[in-house]
Amino acid sequence: MFTRKRYVRGSLRKIKLKRGPDAWEWRYPDRSIEGSPLRALRFSSEEFPTKAAVWKHIEGLLWKVNADAPQSVSQELSFSSLCERFIEDEQLRKLAELRSGEQRTFGTLKVSTARGYLTIIDKYLKPEFGEATVSTITAAEVDVWLKHLSVSLLTKAHIKALLFRLFERAMLWQILPTQRNPMELVEIKGATKRRKRPIVLTPEQCMALIDSLEQPYRTMVLVAACTGLRVSEILALKWADFDFEQLSVRVTRAVVRGIVDTVKTEYSEDDLPLDAAFAAELLEWQNMCPASTGGWVFPSPRTGRPYEPGTIQQKIIRKAGQGISLEGVGWHTFRHTYRSLLDAAGAPVGVQQKLMRHAEISTTMNVYGNALMASKRQANSAALRLLKEQVNGVQSKLVLFGFDQQKTEVANAS
Predict the structure, then answer these.
(1) Any alpha helices (H) in 75-201, and if so which ranges?
(2) Structural domain count, the chain
(3) In the listed set 142, 168, 193, which residue is the last one of a domain according to the structure?
(4) Is 94 exposed, middle or buried (0-12, 13-18, 19+ CB in 10 A)?
């Protein structure tokens, strides 16, 4: 007859040691071995001064102890335990500990993503749901909590996205039955709407800004304007990535907060063309570029490693933008400008998508679809010319469209 395994929680007691401060001893049956012998783990009372504190830590270990339990038993795991398993499975703490100058060689997540997940888990999710069992957390409860949470809509969207991922893992690990993810029912209205219209520079504004900069910032911004690369990709460029004979550059890596990582998506890794005049500018910078161990195109003279983009944006680019009467110019301004220049040059949308390295053409059209005013004016005038051709010679229709024959002749003469 099948005997249902019970959920293992174990017992906790405080013990005196011959040397040093008291310790907490947690004892639990090891179900992975026949006979379920008792195991014991000890925790410093200095690190965990209260029983509640040590239990909170133990909660993060219970998923391992109950890993082979049936689903009906594993549903008793706390949300905190689910978070700890996710943290260990994705190596979040190990990723978060990487420092500037190091390279990510493990895990599937970006360092910035790992740090963001840890912040959300520690600051929002564990304090609110940590003690609850996973199976008792409902979409309605999460929806009400998020509505009253005093954070931005974007932060709420990030919290919901992580909750969705955690519930997906709970089903994968058989902590929950496989079903529709309840977090799909939670809505964060308005979180995906663009709050600020992106700045797009005219060719004249763009060159005026570039010409006002000193090296190496001039070439950095020139690369941004001529390729549409993200700043993380610009600062991660190495001279070995360039093929000046074939006039191309290979985009393979990014630098985020000083840590060398892969590019944003698989579609971001690609070969891009180099204009001959632009390549000549790069070769001129190569002759001036400080030597570095990594062969970086833009090494900091102080560290020999890539620059910090935030400082350059605030102290160099924003100031240069103000010099041409533009507020809020930043690194991404040049990516939006590059897309608009492609549009103005008549590049097919499919080609624009490839040059922008977007996974979806909708991103090229919607997020980066703000065309230059001159291009929009030209297209609008062309459309109106077609209308005027259709009503040419029909006076009543000319009046209907607000045209007067005499005014039309004056306009054509001008």
Answers:
(1) 79-89, 92-96, 111-120, 126-129, 139-148, 153-172
(2) 4
(3) 193
(4) middle
